[in-house]
Backbone:
């Protein structure tokens, strides 16, 4: 795939992409791929890895997470396709997988795929991801659809407001994938330092509580970069977070232990019908 | 001809019973143990209940509460004393430390299961208590903790009762009884007592639920007059004595004029004021995730071929809801779209 | 450390109730600000104009349902017609040529005849049969269905049909898993993953079998033609037999709704919780990608499971037809024993045995019935030998079955029983995989059988009375 001539050709940086499918024994960086359902997340995943995941127009279709790999500019990347979710705050199984991976799986870069025709709704998830991680890239996909419907997206303004690289793409046509790769790479090797936007305007009735708890967490773990997210989750009674505090998982200087999260299998349907024998 | 609904229901019930029924033949021993556990745990609950109300329990009160014979009640108490779950101090019967812990565990399961039914299923709220009454004797410690985690460790059950945690700590109960509220006050329902069931059913039939805001108009002659969801209601002392409320600050007051989303039709848009607390748990979160949050502007998009569900444009996307859900979303500022 | 947890707990007690609402509200108001800066949307009349026009049509009160039925009908028509050619080709290749060829090889190697029988006449032939009749319709049906899905039409179907399913205590998305079931029940069961609530999903799984799958359409058409169509005047024969098949399919749909309703009122009690569904924008589907992925994801997945079950079943079919006790094969012993019982239901022992041993796939029910009929009536010259599946044209089939004692009543009852019997082994296995529960797998397996026996019994009793 990569010929000698093209590797040095700046016009086609895609040429240094080697799709590795599921061959990811050794890798330099881990990437998490998050996004709303229906944003073409799987198409992005497939164009990066050369795999052919099919996910339909449905939330909850990717039940188990899929993994793949690629090589770019001499670095090997493992990429994890997280379930498509609208949010990371709920108690559903899908959101738990996505949330725990971004926080505890410690990806080097989190790529968020958003639908250019439905930016506002997608930003809900983007802002939540940015509460958790410092290193993220936003891929505004389906630009062709936006254009068809006369919607224009100011990529620079988005990037400035969010403090992370934003890449426009039409993954189905392969447009923007090269830029996306370059940005992932730059963030991964530390060339691009993100200054992610953290939610500024918490409504006053919860702001005090969040601040109080965040201060306490910061005092205990001065190096933790997402103390406010931890506070938010504790205030929602998230057991995973309570356990993490109890086990001292946040004590590490990096913020979190670099620990590989368990591969999650397709969990069988929980038949907990009310009122009848389980 | 009238459709023989009941007959068909029975046939289906029979199908449903065959499978567990056959299984039960082989577990009569287990079944017996289970009945003993149920009896014992109900006794502890009764003793705890007396304790918290400042009453003195006795074998008579126990026999009455559990609807068992006096003799059985006395044996039960003997058994509890032998197993060190209760003690007598100056002839006065009370729970030991372990007994209290055990009682709290049963209460924890009961309230968690009610939360589960409310948040994760569509079971009618009139059935919550009864189902939880059975379930509280069946779950293992692990299952209970799993359930709590799955529900996000809730502190209060759907009736507003505090749920004890694993260690037996109970969040403080709050509120005053609705029947004691002065006219003119605006209050929010915090807890509705689910026993006796007849009273509870009367209350739920009026679409009164925890989280609902009430404006008290008058309180006289043993009746309380108030406005809920824009409608004036009158409750007797019996009903209002089963409802606990907390006063709410002026900032959280309801606006006087609002309508519901199901009334917003073709060519109109509106702003969401709030999502009724009747929509709970996972449903509520899903609606919010889709963008139905206070302050969102929502416009009518289309109705389905059968007229229900309907779809709205919200946060730049299109989301479909059933009319009964839209009816629980309060909106203001309804405007014709240009 | 405990201080943190303690503080968190106290703050939750103080603020807990509204915390989540306030948080989501805060995030969304922030999102609105950013979007206002960065996104400019033209007047809503221009944006999504095409989407709106399409939506107006497909959700219209008058056209919504006709469009839906028309689209589904076209999908099935293309499937049935389009599958014929590859099916004939595969059948020629694997059955007509492959089978004698393999027999020849075994013969030349001097293999004992029982070995050739079990492996080639039994296992190989059943697997080859399953592949040649199952693969082509799935190759056509699944991509078509996936195209509709990728285009964004299917969520609109769920949107339109939700009101009917709500009344049955189920979720609108069940309309889709049901339609998928018309192609293949196993795929329909897998598709129920799109339903969030475990209760509603379980209802969708249990009732999926009432969708007449690809494997059962040919049985219905054949029996309708040779028994029901033949009972009508010749100029009406085609119409009557087609109507009979459609009637059975619609009966399946009504029973599916009826059983959903029954389950949701009893063992799976609980009012319908909710229907909140995003209706995604329409998007041009990618044809090649769809062909490829639906082939991998659905067709090969289902086919593989079917073949895995067909191989041992083929061996069993051959063995019971060839192992004899006191000059009667095991198959005949079984048939003779259950025959008196089967008669009560207007069926016969051959049909019962065929449904037991043809469990891997509904596609091999008719060949199994033919083979067993030849075996029991000792029809000279017919068939391909004990335990060897074969097929004949309609007239010959009719003649053979009538020789086997079949009447119009047997035909009707077979059509009902073909709709109402246990799911194929692939589907049963899939149900177990998806629910992780033996109990619900058992219910899904035996509930339709019980219903089938009740309906055939009632029909037979009435038939004999009148």
Residues:
């Amino acid at each position: 795939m990569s010929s000698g001539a093209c590797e040095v050709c700046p016009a086609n940086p895609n040429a240094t992409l080697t799709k590795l499918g599921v061959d990811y024994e050794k890798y330099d960086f881990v990437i998490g791929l998050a996004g709303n359902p229906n944003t073409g997340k799987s198409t992005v995943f497939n164009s990066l890895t050369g795999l052919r995941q099919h996910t339909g127009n449905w939330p909850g279709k990717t039940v188990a997470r899929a993994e793949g790999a690629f090589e770019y500019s001499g670095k090997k990347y493992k990429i994890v396709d997280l379930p498509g979710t609208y949010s990371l705050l709920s108690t559903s199984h899908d959101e738990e997988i996505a949330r725990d991976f971004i926080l505890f799986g410690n990806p080097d870069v989190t790529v968020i795929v958003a639908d250019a025709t439905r930016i506002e709704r997608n930003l809900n998830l983007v802002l939540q991801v940015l509460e958790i991680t410092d290193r993220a890239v936003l891929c505004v996909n389906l630009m062709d659809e936006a254009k068809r419907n006369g919607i224009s997206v100011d990529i620079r303004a988005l990037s400035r407001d969010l403090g992370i690289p934003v890449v426009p793409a039409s993954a189905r046509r392969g447009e923007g994938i090269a830029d996306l790769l370059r940005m992932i790479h730059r963030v991964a090797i530390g060339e691009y330092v993100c200054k992610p936007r953290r939610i500024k305007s918490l409504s006053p009735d919860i702001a005090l509580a969040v601040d109080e708890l965040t201060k306490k967490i910061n005092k205990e773990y001065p190096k933790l970069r997402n103390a406010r997210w931890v506070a938010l989750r504790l205030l929602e009674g998230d057991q995973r977070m309570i356990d993490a505090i109890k086990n001292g998982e946040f004590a590490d200087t990096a913020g979190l232990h670099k620990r590989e999260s368990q591969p999650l299998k397709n969990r069988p349907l929980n038949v907990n019908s009310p009122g009848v024998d389980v | 001809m009238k459709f023989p609904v009941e007959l068909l229901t029975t046939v289906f019930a029979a199908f449903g019973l065959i499978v567990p029924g056959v299984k039960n033949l082989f577990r009569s021993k287990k079944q017996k143990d289970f009945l003993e556990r149920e009896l014992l745990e109900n006794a502890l609950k009764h003793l705890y209940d007396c304790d918290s109300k400042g009453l003195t329990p006795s074998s008579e009160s126990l026999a009455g509460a559990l609807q068992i014979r006096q003799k059985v009640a006395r044996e039960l108490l003997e058994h509890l004393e032998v197993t060190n779950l209760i003690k007598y101090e100056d002839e006065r019967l009370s729970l030991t430390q372990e007994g209290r812990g055990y009682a709290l565990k049963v209460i924890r399961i009961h309230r968690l299961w009610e939360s589960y039914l409310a948040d994760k299923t569509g079971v009618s709220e009139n059935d919550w208590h009864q189902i939880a009454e059975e379930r509280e004797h069946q779950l293992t410690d692990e299952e209970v903790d799993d359930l709590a985690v799955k529900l996000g460790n809730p502190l209060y059950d759907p009736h507003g009762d505090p749920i004890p945690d694993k260690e037996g700590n109970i969040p403080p109960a709050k509120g005053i009884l609705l029947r004691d509220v002065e006219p003119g006050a605006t209050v929010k329902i915090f807890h509705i007592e689910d026993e006796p069931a007849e009273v509870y059913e009367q209350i739920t039939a009026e679409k009164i639920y925890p989280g609902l805001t009430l404006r008290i108009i008058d309180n006289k002659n043993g009746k309380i007059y108030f406005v809920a969801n824009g409608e004036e209601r009158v409750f007797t002392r019996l009903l209002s004595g089963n409802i606990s409320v907390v006063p709410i600050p002026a900032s959280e007051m309801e606006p006087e004029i609002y309508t519901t989303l199901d009334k917003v039709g073709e060519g109109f848009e509106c702003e969401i004021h709030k999502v009724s607390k009747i929509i709970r748990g996972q449903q509520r979160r899903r609606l919010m995730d889709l963008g139905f949050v206070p302050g969102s502007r929502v416009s009518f998009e289309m109705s389905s071929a059968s007229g229900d569900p309907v779809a709205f444009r919200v946060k730049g996307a299109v989301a479909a809801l059933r009319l009964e859900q839209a009816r629980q979303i309060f909106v203001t500022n309804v405007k014709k779209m240009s | 450390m405990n201080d943190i947890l303690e503080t968190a707990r106290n703050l939750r007690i103080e603020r807990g109730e509204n915390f989540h609402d306030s948080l989501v509200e805060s995030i969304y108001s922030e999102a609105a600000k950013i979007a206002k800066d960065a996104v400019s949307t033209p007047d809503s009349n221009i944006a999504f104009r095409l989407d709106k026009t399409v939506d107006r049509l497909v959700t219209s009160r008058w056209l919504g349902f006709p469009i839906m039925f028309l689209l589904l009908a076209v999908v099935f028509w293309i499937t049935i017609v389009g599958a014929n050619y590859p099916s004939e080709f595969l059948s020629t290749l694997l059955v007509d040529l492959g089978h004698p060829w393999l027999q020849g090889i075994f013969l030349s190697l001097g293999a004992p005849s029982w070995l050739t029988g079990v492996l080639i006449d039994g296992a190989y032939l059943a697997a080859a049969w399953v592949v040649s009749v199952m693969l082509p319709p799935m190759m056509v049906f699944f991509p078509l269905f996936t195209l509709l899905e990728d285009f964004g039409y299917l969520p609109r179907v769920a949107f339109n049909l939700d009101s009917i399913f709500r009344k049955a205590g189920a979720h609108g998305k069940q309309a889709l898993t049901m339609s998928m079931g018309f192609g293949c029940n196993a795929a329909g069961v897998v598709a129920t993953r799109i339903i969030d609530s475990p209760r509603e999903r379980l209802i969708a799984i249990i009732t999926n079998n009432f969708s007449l799958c690809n494997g059962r359409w040919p049985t219905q058409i054949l029996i309708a033609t040779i028994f029901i169509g033949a009972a009508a005047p010749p100029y009406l024969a085609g119409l009557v037999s087609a109507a009979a098949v459609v009637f059975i399919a619609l009966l399946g749909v009504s029973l599916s709704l009826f059983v959903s309703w029954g389950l949701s009122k009893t063992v799976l009690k609980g009012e319908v919780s909710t229907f909140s569904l995003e209706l995604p924008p329409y998007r041009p589907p990618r044809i090649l990608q769809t062909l490829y992925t639906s082939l991998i994801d659905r067709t090969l997945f289902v086919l593989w499971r079917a073949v895995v079950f067909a191989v041992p079943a083929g061996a069993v079919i051959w063995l019971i037809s060839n192992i004899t006790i006191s000059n009667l094969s095991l198959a005949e012993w079984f048939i003779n024993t259950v025959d008196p019982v089967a008669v009560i239901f207007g069926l016969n022992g051959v049909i019962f045995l065929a449904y037991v041993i043809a469990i891997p796939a509904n596609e091999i029910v008719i060949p199994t019935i033919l083979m067993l009929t030849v075996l029991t009536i000792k029809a000279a010259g017919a068939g391909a030998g004990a335990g060897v599946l074969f097929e004949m044209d309609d007239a010959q089939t009719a003649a053979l079955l009538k020789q086997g004692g079949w009447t119009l009543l047997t035909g009707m009852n077979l059509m009902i029983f073909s709709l109402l019997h246990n799911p194929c082994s692939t589907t049963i296995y899939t149900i177990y995989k998806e629910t992780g529960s033996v109990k619900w797998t058992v219910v899904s397996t035996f509930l339709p059988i019980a219903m089938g026996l009740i309906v055939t019994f009632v029909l037979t009793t009435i038939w004999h009375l009148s």
About this structure: Chain A is about 35% helix and 15% strand. The CA atoms of residues 220 and 251 of chain A lie 8 Å apart. The radius of gyration of chain A is 19 Å. Strands of chain A lie at 18-21, 29-35, 66-72, 75-81, 109-115, 136-141, 152-153, 166-168.
